[in-house]
Design goal:
Deoxyhypusine Synthase; 369 residues; alpha/beta; 15 helices; six-stranded parallel beta sheet; three-stranded antiparallel beta sheet
């Protein structure tokens, strides 16, 4: 080895930024080092590898992204362009996503407000976002009425629940004439399944619980969610020659684990031969040294079987606020790639589950599990 090996990288000689500099030029010509450099790598990984036709892209959503407007501004366009094939989200993101779709507003505020005074005036704060307390009550009434409908009177997975809710949200958007603003309605329209690993941990789950006290029969089948998500990842590898699975992680928490545990479910629990997800892209502000999952690195995920060890060069972690990184990455992707064909994985859930069951039965027959 010689020192030339370490000096092969592009020389840092950016041109001056001008009034006409585009988002693509900004990423490719000016995001050269530190976390800007990692965001550059993330944009290139997403556009050049993760959006190939043979790749199935799963996204996880954590943190209050939809109250900040990222649902309608970034995630819905990604769904519309076929750049996201399935989603794992906190219930809170989907609940707050609904506010906009059914006609309510949230407003820019300040993190330095007096919260006792806000409470006195019926104003709710999410850091520097303000909204009327009645927005919560009205959204609760929306969910309370929706889950009273006959199609909800049974046990179902969260993907089916969100699909059914998305139908009602899309109809409300149509009546209001505001266009598609909701992750739920876009996912319904394009057949993108949405899972919530902790369905009781949000106002949606709280309304389901309230209705249960009155005899409503809606229950969530979490075992079905675990199997459906594993079946989606297995399908990603089996549906195409050289099929691949990509994970696009916004934040961390339970949705990150639920997205990633699909591979241990296949390998460790079901005994199906697999090596892990192929592409790993995470935007997080969490440190790895505290031991929390939100900051866990892709190399650590290799030790669990979550990420293919041979694919670590195609793993990028960006230590940046999602509200900064996601709009840039979305704009870059829309500028660089034409829309992909929608995989409509929601419509294929039973088919994918049947394949998972067959492969599990084969593994058991071979005595591997």
């Amino acid at each position: 080895m010689t020192k030339d090996r370490y000096l092969r990288g592009r020389a840092i000689e950016p041109r001056p930024i001008t009034a006409s500099t585009t988002i693509v030029e900004l990423v490719e010509e000016h995001f050269l080092a530190y976390n800007a450099g990692r965001l550059h790598e993330a944009c290139r990984l997403f556009v050049e590898k993760m959006l190939e036709e043979n790749v199935t892209v799963g996204m996880s959503l954590t943190g209050a992204l939809t109250p900040a407007g990222l649902g309608m501004s970034a995630i819905v366009p990604l769904i519309e362009h076929g750049f996201v094939d399935w989603i794992v989200s906190t219930g809170a993101n989907l609940y707050h996503d609904t506010h906009f779709a059914i006609g309510f507003t949230m407003h820019r505020g300040t993190p330095h407000a007096d919260d006792v005074e806000l409470r006195r005036h019926g104003v709710v704060r999410i850091y520097d976002i303000f909204f009327d307390y009645d927005v919560l009550l009205s959204t609760d009434r929306f969910y309370y009425e929706v889950i009273s409908q006959p199609e909800f009177q049974r046990e179902m997975g969260t993907a089916e629940f969100h699909h059914l809710v998305g139908k009602y949200v899309l109809e409300r958007e149509r009546l209001l004439g505001r266009g598609m603003r909701s992750i739920l309605s876009a996912a319904y329209h394009y057949g993108v399944p949405i899972y919530t690993p902790a369905p009781g941990d949000s106002s949606i789950g709280m309304n389901v619980a309230a209705k249960a006290l009155l005899g409503n029969h809606l229950k969530f089948d979490v075992a079905r969610d675990v199997n459906e998500t594993a079946a989606i990842v297995l399908g990603a590898k089996r549906d195409y020659p050289n099929g691949k699975s990509a994970v696009f992680i916004l934040g961390g928490g339970s949705p990150k684990n639920f997205l990633l545990q699909t591979e241990p479910q296949l390998q460790e629990v079901l005994g199906i031969e697999e090596r892990g997800h192929d592409y790993f892209l995470q935007i997080t502000d969490a440190r790895p040294d505290t031991g929390g999952l939100s900051g866990a690195t892709p190399s650590e995920a290799v030790s669990w079987g979550k990420v293919d060890p041979d694919r670590l060069p195609d793993a990028v972690t960006v230590y940046l606020d999602t509200t900064v990184a996601l709009p840039i990455l979305t704009a870059y992707a829309l500028a660089k790639r034409p829309p992909r064909r929608h995989k409509r994985l929601y419509d294929r859930r039973e088919e994918l589950l049947a394949r998972l069951r067959r492969e599990y039965e084969k593994a058991r027959a071979r005595g591997e599990f």
